[in-house]
Amino acid sequence: VGEAQARIAAMLLMTLRGTPTLYQGDEIGIGDVQIASDQVCDPQHLNQPGLGIGRDRSRTPMPWDASANAGFSTVDPWLPLNEDWQSRNVAAQDRSSNSLLSLYRSLLALRRSHDALAIGDVTLFEATEDVLVYQRRHADECLIIALNLGDKTRPLSLSQSLPTDTCDAEVLCSTLAKRSMDDTLAPNEGVVLRLREKR
Hints:
199 residues; alpha+beta; 5-stranded antiparallel beta sheet; elongated
């Protein structure tokens, strides 16, 4: 989905029903790794060359840090590392609160602490162009997930589907810097909102 939408994809994965599955490197945003034909290891690709169905690009070594061989091995690994491994690695993202790794950790913690995300019902709402909005509800808890799948600011009107005149929307998580909610979603922004009755 590209760099800009990687955070949206993470939020979508972690807020829908079912068991979230990550391939190694997803949590730090590793894209397709170029693998030369003489480095291909996957039998499926070797048996059916030219179809682009090989799994090696999802099995490249995990870059743990900027040391030799990315801290993965003391020798050259069997598959190449991502080209930007010296800057895109676990240690570098571990130091940044705005990294994709930090977002995944926040989303995993949110999923563990809110039953609505793990076992709640899903209701899809009408939304404007490029915006996907759905509700996760379990018992008395109501969470709204709003995702801007585009690269332009889009309006976010929850009042069409929700009792926002009697509820406040608290931002539990954002793919961008945490902010108070208004009636828009920034380009490539996703939010998890908790609705609470106004007092």
